Amino acid sequence: MRPLRLLVAIASAFLVLLVAAPAWACGGLVNSNGSVTLVRTTTMAAYHQGIEHYVTSFQFAGGEGEFGSIIPLPGVPTRVIRGGDWTLQRLVQETQAQRTAALAFDAGAEAAPAAAKVILKTEIDALDIVVLEGGGTAVGTWAREHGFFLPPDAPEVLDFYAERSPIFMTVRFDADRAAEQGLAEGDGTPVHVVIPTTNPWVPLRILGLGAAADAPVEAGVYLLTDVEPAMLPVPVEPGIAAKLPPEVRPGLILQQSSSASTSLLADLRSDTGMKWLPSDEMWLTYLRLDARAGDLDYDLAIDASGAGQPSPVAAGLEPVPAPDPVRFDGFGAALWTAVGILVVLGVAGLFERRRSGRPAV
Amino acid sequence: MVRSGLVAALLVSAAACSPASATSDARTIEIDIHYSRFDPAVIDVRRGETVRFVIANTDPIDHEFIVGDEAVQDAHELGTESYHPPRPGEVTVPSGETVETTYRFEGGNLIFGCHLPGHYAYGMRGLAVVGL
After folding, report:
1. pTM over 0.80
2. Residues A92-119, buried b or exposed e (16+ Cβ, 10 A)?
3. I want to staple B114 with a disulfide (CB 3.0 to 4.6 A). Which of A17, A182, B64, B65 is the partner?
């Protein structure tokens, strides 16, 4: 394998994939820095008036490799733009004192095209971003044909997501542009994705993609919603998490759930692209994910409507319902049409027989 | 002398081609690869039996099918081949394709596995139980 040239630590951390590996075959070809690099991630998923605003940061780590990522989305984004410069940092600051984002989709996705369809392409600083629509196999094939290396669990995980939403966003650093822009190791590029959707959702399972079953997966997820959200799986309280044995990772921990302070909202609104955020009456939820990769077989479903009914399907806890068989009302319409025609024909036949003087049978 | 040598060479050549006829008599075992798993993951063969494997990969990623003992598997796990030419019991299975390889089983139980990065550790291996 050629030397790795560019390493991207994914601060938002979804699926981290080695890009443009020229020759993969026998094991041991993966550089010791790994085909998959999981780092602690921080994301924000804010939801207001039916629009999810997802902000995350992709961190340039320098080095000799090319890395990219695939992020499942809850729906088709209307915009993918450069994120503000301090949104994530300000959220961390807001919750740091007490100790320590969301992605969503519309469940019941329509059938995905057989081949992945590119529905949006854009560049943000040194990032090349492509939004795709397609099933797991189609998106995986597209990624492979475009130089992404997918780890062995990718086929199953991509299907897991595509069954609910066939929308994915691929992100990769352009090494030449990164050099031109003088990106230094640790520099982050925030990305803001605007997604109309019925409820926010945070993909968590994909954080463990490519990781060994025992590998820890850690992430910080900030939610900003109009009302206090209901979540599934239900996160554990910090007090309960603290009582668990050290070898047991608790999963989702609810670190903070409170009205967002006006100072926080004011600061966030002053950042680039954040004017949509209300200046008051928003609810801030901060969740910390601390899980074994092998246990991370769920996502975070959120009901931000106040109804308190997060979807177990969106959480990955229940399978996507099978499509309706032949709908009865459709069949009924055809049946009643046929019955109607027969009745008309029968009446006509009766008439004809009476006119010809033969008794009706 | 030269003629007899040529005849001998032809005979050797014919003998070298004998695996082809063995292939035509071989039992066929179909292996599906889905979600980076072999199905079936355990097969039963007889010692001395030649098996024609037909391997279908429905995943969007490439895989391998390597038959051999632990030493063979270890060698491939540390190997450097980017692509496996169709040697008996060793074949690359590109995404979405179906390939064949033929292998004659001798000795004890063998493993079949994939050694693309991370695949073997992920559990992409199966067992060929070699009976009498």
Report:
1. no
2. bebbeeeeebbbbbbbebeebeeebeee
3. B64
